[in-house]
Amino acid sequence: MAKSKMKRKRVPKSVLKLPDLEQSKSAVLNSLTSPSSQRTYDHAIREFIEWYCSEPRLAFNKTVVTRYRISLEQQHYASTTISLRLAAVRRLAYEAADCGLLSADLAAGIRRVKGAKRLGMPVGRGARRLSPGDSLQECGGGTEGFHRNHVPAALYQWRQQFAGDFENRHRAG
After folding, report:
1. What homologous superfamily is domain 18-111 in, according to CATH?
2. Which of 107, 122, 139, 165 is a Cys-bridge partner for 97, taking CB atoms 3.0 to 4.6 Å apart?
């Protein structure tokens, strides 16, 4: 067989350059249907690419994505923000592997990067019920952030509980 007719098999890379990342980014954004998701993922991927290209010749692998997560944690981002950004990076790796730019093994390793640990007071179904005698200090309050984020939810929960108790006590026979 002549040399000109043989196709060269594309070997997946470990160090992705800006054009490779942009190609994968456009594939990710084209796979999303919601404009809000596209905006969110676009922002998260742009920030990751900026961080990735600022470091000298890093291979795109699990260790690098873990370093990115640590970098986000050091910047004091909320755990949900970190999880969202890591989801975008995982999707970027998946699309890069799908396009043949990244090996499937590296993409699988990136998908296994753990998200940030959730810290703080649980709000919602998992939160403990408050009693009318609980003070904010007992609930972990005292900081400005706590009051802004948790007091409205705590008051709503207490009001719902109090209303239920009131109805049970004053139910007509």
Report:
1. Tyrosine recombinase, N-terminal domain (1.10.150.130)
2. 107
